[in-house]
Amino acid sequence: MRVLYRGLLAAVVVVAVAAALALVLPSEPDEVAAGPVTAPPAAPPSSGPAAVPTQDVTPVPRNDMPSPRASLAPGYTAMQALYADPRVPKLTRAVKRMALASPGRRVVKDERIGLAVPKLPGPWKGYGAAPFTTRQALPKQRDTSLRGMFVSCPLPIMEQKSPRDTALLAARWTLNHHPKGSRITWLASQPVKKGWMLVYRVTYGAHTSRAAVVIMDGGMSKPGLAFVTVPDSQRKQWRDIGRVASGVRVLG
């Protein structure tokens, strides 16, 4: 009888414990009711040591919110640096083409870049080319170091997939040869044979220059660059900007 009593008592205890657990732990539903989807909560910070990344990856900044200083940050491409430069506006479809004249017969052969560039009439004169490969310039002026300059050389910046983009970077590079604080305004943009041409105004303080760059593939290891700039104090020679834009061509 004692054995039977103990067995019955044990069974009663097991049933009581199971009932208590049923009140505390809800049963798992057979299916989940549909409801709004929410993002999972952020994981709590780990109390252990921080994980060491297997690769040092520099994030690429957003194109839609560039800043001038960000153009020097690691991870920027050459074009992102261009778009971040407040001195160079975006080149839009509103910038028109210009009528190109027939190239003149008088040329200077730049065999290093495989191009022939126009030999401009007086008062332009040839000068020592270094650090370029050809150089023509207008006479010096009193009380200023500014004067017209027309040069050619191998492309001094990284070539891009698009000749247009390459020309944009080249135009930005030419600001190194204008007074500090210069800014560009686009005047003309169009493709040329084996390259691209840009004409623009450079503003610095109360003065301006007219300038142009022509990027052209002359069959060498790098494309060639032809660059001309003329300050407003020598504005009579602004007409020569069109001669440069029209006259650069491949040798041969």
Give a concise summary.
The protein is built from four helices and ten strands; from the N terminus they run ααβββββαββββαβ.
Task: Write a structural description.
The chain has helices at residues 2-24, 78-83, 163-174, 239-247; strands at residues 107-110, 115-118, 125-126, 134-137, 149-154, 183-192, 195-204, 207-216, 224-231, 249-250. It is α+β, with helices and mostly antiparallel strands and 252 residues long. It has a domain at 89-250: Protein Transport Mog1p, Chain A (3-Layer(aba) Sandwich). The protein is globular. A hairpin with a 2-residue loop joins strand 7 (195-204) and strand 8 (207-216). The chain has four helices and ten strands. The strands form two sheets. It has a seven-stranded antiparallel sheet with strand order 3-4-5-9-8-7-6, with helices on both faces.
Based on Cα principal axes, name the global outline.
Answer: globular
Distance between the termini: 122 Å
Q: How are the strands of the biggest sheet laid out side by side? A: 3-4-5-9-8-7-6
Per CATH, what is the topology of the domain at 89-250? Protein Transport Mog1p, Chain A
User: How large is the share of residues in beta strands?
Assistant: 15-25%
The description of the largest β-sheet is:
7 strands, antiparallel
Instruction: Provide the CATH top-level class of the domain at 89-250.
Output: Alpha Beta
- Based on CA atoms alone, the radius of gyration comes out at 36 Å
- Helix-strand pattern: HHEEEEEHEEEEHE
Organism: Nonomuraea insulae
Region (Disordered): 33-68
Protein name: Secreted protein
Biased composition (Pro residues): 38-47
